[in-house]
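User: I'm putting together a small comparison set for a docking exercise, and I want a reference complex before I start. The sequence is below, and the ligand is S-adenosyl-L-homocysteine. Could you produce the 3D structure with the ligand included, as structure tokens?
Assistant: Of course. I'll restate your input first, then give the structure tokens for the complex.
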Amino acid sequence: MTKKEIMGLTLEELQTELMGLGLKKFRAEQVFRWLYEKAAVDFEQMSNLGKETRQLLAEHYTIATSQVKVLKEYKSQDGLTHKVLLELTDGATVETVLMHHDYGYSVCLSSQVGCAMNCAFCASGLHGFVRNLTPAEILAQLYFFQSQLGPRGQRVSRIVVMGSGEPMLNLDNVLKALDILHSDRGQCIGYRNMTVSTCGVVPGIEKMTVLGRNINLAISLHAASMALRDRLMPINHRYPFADVIRAADAYEKSNGRQVMYEYILLAGINDRPEDARNLADALEHKECVINLIPANPVPEKGFARPSDQAVDRFFQMLKKRHLNVTVRKEMGKDINAACGQLRASALKEAQR
Ligand code: SAH
């Protein structure tokens, strides 16, 4: 008998599932808490279930957290960033990053294996799109780390969906995982401490607006002229950035969450004074923050990081226009922590 995956079900779905096995309804909540509050990786840990129940569950189900295999693991020299390349049951790989900030731990989750968006500077799409991740596989990325932090009395308290893939193209699975993580019987992470980042898939932004959760929205803008953004981000042909900004404005109006615009700085490409002017024209008077990200060069892509002076010049130009702008604090630069870089380098090695 092939086992089913038990992670990724809502509490109600888990109740139906376990009652189908002849278990009492309240068992589902116990199992839910073991999985999502206590980060259990094995049914044997579930000490408030009888031995027979534990065995029954183990005969029928797997726990995704214990199904992922660490293929590569890197810790930055400062010890604050821990990145892993995880192998899933079908051999696909995803990368996940744990970051230790002064306020606690956050994880950066991947939403897809590979990516179809083909942004000119990004490593995630180098080997094409493979498939969407299931809710269980999204959860397993977080619980891989939480199962290590828990025994030390620590917990992941923030989530950014900024790993590989385009979350808006796998939105149902992403939101299902985030809802489970939000549950007060689980990891109990407030929606305000979650951020979903998109390259600008307008229908996804609109769907999130209708759903009305207080999740933070980040938009990967990277250029504010049609010609340049078309060149850097093919999605701009489908959803021009002005439409993306309009959709993001509506999202901000619907729940009051300030939108974050990400802007990677690529030397000589989008870091010129005219680029800063275009960006300021597009975003001034909006309730938003602009996060400048000096590019992490991906060798295959041929872009360079601007000098610190160029970054500062760009920053100052936006400041003068009264925009709320920050420069991203970089973590894990020494461990290929830009999205998709670790997986891409592992795939490259495998092809040698
Ligand atoms: N597809 C979503 C989720 C990925 S988020 C999105 O585009 O928003 C990952 C962020 O890192 C995006 O803003 C992406 O544009 C950025 N990024 C990709 N490649 C990068 C690189 N080489 N250096 C710095 N940031 C990069």
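The longest strand covers residues 93-101. The radius of gyration is 21 Å.
User: Thanks, that's exactly what I needed.
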